[in-house]
Amino acid sequence: MTDETKPSSSPLVSIIVPIRNSKHYLDDCVNSLRSQTYPDLEIILVDDGSTDGSAELCDAMAQTDQRIRMTHQPCRGVSAARNAGLDAATGAFVTFVDSDDSLRREAVAEAVRCAITHSADMVVFGYDVIEEHADGSVTEQESKTVRQQNVIDTRRRHEKTVANQLCALDNDELLYQCWGKLYRRSSIGDLRFAENIAFGEDMLFVLDLLTRGIRMAFLQRCLYVYRQHMGSLVRGFRFGKAQELEYTHGKHLAFYRDMLISETNRCHLYLRLANDALWAIHDACKAAGTVDKTELLRFVRHVASSPYRNVYLHELRNAAVNRSTKIAFAINMTSLWKWYLR
């Protein structure tokens, strides 16, 4: 580590990695953590009932690096795995890395230095998006760079300036993931991830933390590498997703309910939520032929009749789905949905 990157002190940092059948990516992920320029780490690998050899690979890694701690649990979901990591963490700071992603070598060093310099409870940094194709090739898609420079105190989130700074971060896709951030563990305290949902659980964690009143600092570098591939959980049809969308969207909107955000920020926020709902319907359509159509019809009617339907309609024209999905959503008639799912 150079003198320029070494922080003035070296508090222990806990890196929590939830793992579920990701053997193909584990070497890249864990090696990116082991090669961090910051020396004082504990790397907590939480195996969530993997059946592909991931657990055995992690056990072998732990034998070769004393910084690695291995935790095994039956398949309980990513939230339970992250919670197990938080329960096991002993570091002054915590960060999360998904098992198919990785960190740039200097990520922890720069984040810790930023946290110490600004007495921050959370440091937010940018990320690069790469896409893995079916043939195994990888292409760089985009970079999500932090524009915010000033420290934000979320105890002042109802002030107009702070409200819009937070919403702009949210709309830039830099706020709602639990990864891409360094947290002061004492600020997290007893806060944990909701284990009963599989969509938006990390967004709820971050928003709950913000409501506690914390200091946020920012790095304008992209220090996290986010991998998109066919096995990602972000997209895909699940019957339970309709209820999860309704729950998480309600929490998301409630966070901003009494905040003085601009019309531009509000429109971008509504568009994000509309895209969530309309892509869920689009994925349900793609599942037609493999899933019971009565259940699919119930699913799309649930999403289209959400209490937040007017929010989705507000930005329906700008949503990033095909025209037939938009028309079916706008009309919202059973006969049209049957045609849509034909």
Write structural notes for this entry.
- It is built from 13 helices and ten strands.
- By secondary structure, it is of the alpha/beta class.
- Strands 1, 2, 3, 4, 5, 6, 7, 8, 9 and 10 form a ten-stranded mixed sheet that branches.
- β1, α1 and β2 form a beta-alpha-beta unit.
- It is globular.
Parts with pLDDT < 50 across at least 5 consecutive residues: 1-8
SS-based structural class?
A: alpha/beta
| Secondary structure: number of strands | 10
Number of helices: 13
Shape designation: globular
- Portion of residues within helices: 40-55%
The residue-averaged pLDDT reads 93
Strand content: 15-25%
Largest sheet: 10 strands, mixed
Beginning-to-end CA distance, first to last residue? 60 Å
Global Rg: 21 Å
Q: How do the SSEs run, as a string of H and E?
A: EHEHEHEEHEEEHEHHEHHHHHH
Question: How is the secondary structure organized here?
Answer:
Elements: E1 13-19, H1 23-34, E2 41-48, H2 54-64, E3 68-73, H3 78-88, E4 93-96, E5 102-103, H4 107-118, E6 122-132, E7 138-144, E8 152-153, H5 160-171, E9 181-184, H6 185-188, H7 201-211, E10 215-228, H8 241-256, H9 263-286, H10 293-304, H11 309-314, H12 323-331, H13 334-340
Parallel strand pairs: 1-2, 1-4, 2-3, 6-10
Antiparallel strand pairs: 4-9, 5-10, 6-7, 6-9, 8-10
Helix pairs in contact: 5-9, 7-8, 8-9, 8-10, 9-10
